[in-house]
Amino acid sequence: MTGPTIGTLRVNGATLHYEVRGRGPLLLLIPGGTGGAAAFDGIADDLAAEYTVATYDPRGMSGSTLDDPEAEQSVAEHADDALRILDLLSPCEPARVFGSSSGAIAALHLLTAHPERVERLVAHEPPVVEVLPDASEHRALVARVRATFHAEGLMPAMAVFAAGLKKEGAAPTGPKAATELPPQAAARAERTMANLPYFVGRIVPGFMSYTPDIHRLEALSDRLVLACGQDSRGELPYRPAAFLAEHLGTELRHFPGGHTGLTTHPTEFGEALRKEFRGGH
């Protein structure tokens, strides 16, 4: 299969790098964390057999540059970026949308702000911790991460963040031993590391303080699928999706792997995603 078509899109305060594959109705994939468009390399080609698959680097990540690198980041602005991609690639038809982690938070805002542009949204583990009964604890975690980042630097802040996300009572995991990666995976890992300071310093505080409009989600629940990793039970990113699914009276879907099942189980993950866009069970 030929590679993706690469484009750039000028948006408010940034220039977005985006990639398009395949043909058919539009499927927009919104990445989370630090992965950017490359996070979908394992599933995009397969999905492109049925859809025009578009993905992009969120503003400030990888190839999407900010006019002001120090600008605070808001969920609403990131959702507006997704809207601009939809308007460019599917101006007349609503699209299918998938968002993962922080990308799922942006996707939830896109759905509530512009429901006419979204036919169906699959939101995988959006860490909207403000909906949880113990939200104040997670607010304190974000404050600790930010304080540690400014006082001690990136890796100590990441350690605090990782400890806050894991299952209660789980043993802390040490750094993984270095392994020889294939060139493409090595390049992706290098980009991920380069994106980490921005993620910890800008995305984590801006996104984990976001509260979705639950009343709007109730009205739109027929086009929202909340999903979690089947190996994520008990971890912090799992809980908001499970809470929202129960509140909305919808079935929580379980995808292969954990929070990063997209990269650890790409074939099975892509198939589960395809099934949801065909209408679920």
UniProtKB/TrEMBL annotation:
Residues 25-147 form the AB hydrolase-1 domain. Keywords: Hydrolase. It comes from Streptomyces virginiae (Streptomyces cinnamonensis). One of its GO terms (molecular function) is hydrolase activity. This is Hydrolase. SUPFAM superfamilies: alpha/beta-Hydrolases (SSF53474). The keyword Hydrolase applies. The keyword Hydrolase applies.
